[in-house]
Specification:
two-stranded antiparallel ribbon, mainly alpha, about 260 residues
Length: about 260
Amino acid sequence: SENEINEVTRAVASLNDGMAQSLMKRLKNVFTAQESGNKAATLLTTDYSQLLVLNTAAQDAYSVGDGANMGNGVGCEANLGEILGLTALGFQNGLIKSSTIALDTGDWHGRNDPGDNSPQASSAMYISRKLNAFIQQLKNTPDPLSPGKSLFDHTVISISTEFTRGKFGMDGRDNTDGDTNAVIFIGGPVKGGTYGDVRVKTDNNGNDGVDPFSGATTIGQRLTAASVYRTHCKLLGISDALVRNQLGAINGDALTCLIRS
């Protein structure tokens, strides 16, 4: 209780440094064990079969199972809305802290289908609608661990893709297997905006990059994968020290230009 914590705090003041540190360490272990016990009790006594069901409003927003023209893919994205809806419920009920969703749109090598009805455009619109419904659900759901905040305030959505030539193609050329990768960050910690050269074709064959601090385009100097990784870590609140400890030296600065201060 609060009174017990106050009593312990006053008692610690009368101890020497070594005794105080030992006591505080033991108390920390007790509080950690108590928190773990509470979580275990919640898991054992909660009927998640009822909590992990999309209500009618969510089903309408996601249009669960409506399918899409996903080009020559295998169609596994037909349930993308349901997957995103259940992910939000997992966040809301403290069951998960992250989710990875892989989309398979098939092999687009050599394809150059122009116009709004192309498989590329259809796929992009389908994914965008589902993602918008997911974001709105996060914004409308209070964060159970942060009073006054929504789940969106503490969520980072990362989207990466090998193909970035756009729906109109690049002079009829192929995607060149990874020469034009892209990444998108969405969420409360993200400042927002578009950074870098987003033209269909650059004068430097896609070699332009971004200054990590100002966001200005850097001619002929592409971003490194390390910069993108460090940016992701910063958005998630992972310290540089921990990143270095896990991976050693990383060549590339985080894109602080897109991180909300």
